[in-house]
Amino acid sequence: MTSATxxxxxxxxxxxxxxxxxxxxxxxxxxxxxxxxxEAGIVLPPRDPNQAGHAAFTDAQGRxxxxxxxxxAPEFLVCCRKQGAWLANGRTADPAAAAxxxxxxxxxADLAAAEVAAPFLRYGDxxxxxxxxxxxxxxxxxxxxxxxxxxxxPTNPCSSGARALLExxxxxPRLRRLTPVTSHYTLWxxxxxxxxxxxxxxxxxxxxxxxxxxxxxxxxVVTTVATAEEAVALVVAGLPEE
Length: 242
What we know:
Layout: H1 23-40, E1 55-58, E2 64-68, E3 76-82, E4 85-92, H2 95-106, H3 111-117, H4 125-132, H5 137-150, H6 157-170, H7 173-176, E5 179-183, E6 186-190, E7 199-206, E8 212-215, E9 221-225, H8 228-237
Helix pairs in contact: 1-2, 2-3, 5-6, 6-8
């Protein structure tokens, strides 16, 4: 769930988020899943033909599972979606466990039942709440962004910085009313909950040295600060008056 940053310019110190949409890798992941499922007696549904870059499974009601395996990583990342939201994910090195998660979710399991079938799956209280009654779109987007970083260990200084930024921004009531948008670890905010986004205020780029570069909408550098809290305070100060 990434989106283009308005007016973003390349920065040598910035990090790039890895892409997991690779057709050849997805084919290999799917083949491993099916072999493990056959050996374990698990029946997998057909692959979604419209998701060539992922080992993905989708039904007519909008349930979906994506299974990724990043280059050089031994683990499978399993992501489960329904009701318009990615509600659970988890990592396992066992392809049979990943296949069990797919079969349970696509078989209609709720979050609790899916966790029984695949104990490596993780989800937050917000996901249980959304399962009972759909959350507001802006609140849902916040939890999507937070979970993207909170449920996965940081892989580099920029992912650690993006996580710290989101946590600090979520603590600010004015920013919680806006939609958080991330791209290549850069965080900015939108007045609209859906595309086309309406950028509001400054953007912040986590840097490899642990600092944070604050940019104005005109792409000018406002300043570099040492902490996520300082960066977020500048973003709040730069918002239009209410």
